[in-house]
């Protein structure tokens, strides 16, 4: 049985307490849920707005969210999972750096008005390095997935 351990969503202002990113590079608007059993999993959300700075050049007249920013959104969700899990165990969260991206796959474009749902599952932690399986969805349809390796410093 899975159980959401958050009392409610975590909004952007509180996310800023856990992640070092700030506008325009904070790409996680809300944490919707987190569980620790049967696996450590976090579900987050990014609202893709028309006025995002990257749409000015990617691509004028046909705005598409860059794939690297979708991956960054998933990495930020993984960082939130790591920090919230550390807090549950009475530890101070670390600063996490993206070390490796594997098996990245994109299924469709993400455009203004989409709500990107980010699902991150911790596969394992070894010597302050976490391996995460990440998926991104829009309207329940998969848009991207990858494995991420992050290192704490």
Would you kindly provide a written description of the structure presented here, covering whatever features stand out?
This protein has 153 residues and is an alpha+beta fold. The protein has a single domain (10-152), classed as Thiol Ester Dehydrase, Chain A. It is 19% helix and 39% strand. The protein contains two helices and seven strands, in the order βαββαββββ. It has helices at residues 12-18, 67-88, and strands spanning 10-11, 30-35, 41-47, 96-106, 115-126, 129-138, 141-152. The chain has a seven-stranded antiparallel β-sheet with strand order 1-2-3-5-6-7-4. The termini are far apart. The relative contact order is 0.19. The model has no long low-confidence stretch (mean pLDDT 94).
Summarize this structure briefly.
This protein has 2 helices and 7 strands. With 153 residues, the chain is of the alpha+beta class.
- Terminal Cα span: 33 Å
Estimated share of beta-strand residues? 35-45%
CATH superfamily: Hotdog Thioesterase
Order of helices and strands: EHEEHEEEE
The percent of residues in helical segments reads 10-25%
Top-tier CATH class? Alpha Beta
**Cα-based radius of gyration, to the nearest Å:** 15 Å
How many DSSP-defined strands? 7
Poorly predicted regions: none
Reported for the largest beta sheet, the result is: 7 strands, antiparallel
Q: List the strand order in the largest sheet.
A: 1-2-3-5-6-7-4
Q: Any idea what the shape is? A: globular
Query: Any idea what the CATH architecture is?
Result: Roll
């Amino acid at each position: 049985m899975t159980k959401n351990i958050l009392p409610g969503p975590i909004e952007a202002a509180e996310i800023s307490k856990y992640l070092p990113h700030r506008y325009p590079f904070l790409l996680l608007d809300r944490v919707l849920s987190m569980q620790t059993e049967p696996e450590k999993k976090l579900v987050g959300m990014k609202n893709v707005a028309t006025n995002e700075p990257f749409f000015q050049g990617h691509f004028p007249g046909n705005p598409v969210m860059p794939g690297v920013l979708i991956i960054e959104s998933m990495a930020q969700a993984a960082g939130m999972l790591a920090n919230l899990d550390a807090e549950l165990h009475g530890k101070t969260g670390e600063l996490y750096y993206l070390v490796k991206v594997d098996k990245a796959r994109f299924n469709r474009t993400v455009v203004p008005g989409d709500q990107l749902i980010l699902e991150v599952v911790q596969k394992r932690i070894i010597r302050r390095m976490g391996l995460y399986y990440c998926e991104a969805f829009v309207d329940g349809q998969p848009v991207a997935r990858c494995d991420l390796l992050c290192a704490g410093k």
